Amino acid sequence: MEYATIKELVSLAEAAETSIWKIVLQVEAEEEEMTEAEVRKSMLANLNVMKEAVDYGRKNNIQTGGGLVGDEALKLEKYLTTASKSEQNNIYNKMITYALATAEVNAGMGKIVAGPTAGVSGIVPAVVLAIGEENSLSDQKLVEALFTAAGLGYVVSRKATLAGAAGGCQAECGVGAAMAAGAAVELRGGSPRMAADAFAVALKNLLGLVCDPVAGLVEVPCVKRNAFAAAHAYTASTMALAGIESVIPADEVIMAMTEIGDQMPTCLKETSRGGLAVTPTALKIKQDL
């Protein structure tokens, strides 16, 4: 059993009357010549790393290479402790805090899970962990959601790119948000087709996003983009669960992302020679560093 497109992945899940995560787990076990239990154990280890990164980033002022970020999650965490109950219980606020926390741990050279890359490592954990906490879900359910995210990202890795240097930040934040959106749908009880629609909606609304890191560091605007992308992913999942479909199929959205990336100037693809990276403030930061 194998799949190379989102359509094939959804078809396999529907034919077996199961969820996307189950197909991804089975394929991974076959390809790695491992038992499903062993593959699950490996993904559980990833989940624990995600939890540790979120916890550390929320509670500590992280020392990063450029010193441009490091306490954003801490500030948000402190703000929410004094905010109203509705603010504290708002799942979006939880997600953006978790996304900032993980992205800052990455910027400080801490241990994270690249999903799909290190620079966007905050998106999938933020969405999966926040939904899990809000609904008192077991680690087993969260692991299953991670398999869904992984399967969707795997298709992109085969059909397009996951590198900002090749496709711009649409290939990183865009794909990370799309992976998280699909996982969120399954966590929230949606169908494989809904997960595919959420993936498509999330990705197509971040098409064209440039990769323009200030001073070449994965700090500005990268860390804050993780938070916005996490909220974006959850929004896409809610729309899909409501029955809102993507007019353009997920696989065609991936194709469009590839074409846009090919047309995008090199200065906007991780070279720090365009966009925010060449604003007066950014150039002064680069000179000071």
From TrEMBL:
GO molecular function: 4 iron, 4 sulfur cluster binding; L-serine ammonia-lyase activity; metal ion binding
Keywords noted in UniProt: 4Fe-4S, Gluconeogenesis, Iron, Iron-sulfur, Lyase, Metal-binding
InterPro entries: Fe-S_L-Ser, Ser_deHydtase-like_asu, Ser_deHydtase_asu
Cofactor: [4Fe-4S] cluster
Entry EC no(s): 4.3.1.17
Single GO BP term: gluconeogenesis
Catalytic activity of the protein: L-serine = pyruvate + NH4(+)
Residue span, Serine dehydratase-like alpha subunit domain: 17-277
KW Metal-binding (keyword) present: yes
Pathway as given in its UniProt record: Carbohydrate biosynthesis; gluconeogenesis
PANTHER family to which the protein is assigned, alphabetical: L-SERINE DEHYDRATASE, L-SERINE DEHYDRATASE 1
Family: Belongs to the iron-sulfur dependent L-serine dehydratase family.
Name of the protein in question: L-serine dehydratase
UniProt source species: Halanaerobium saccharolyticum
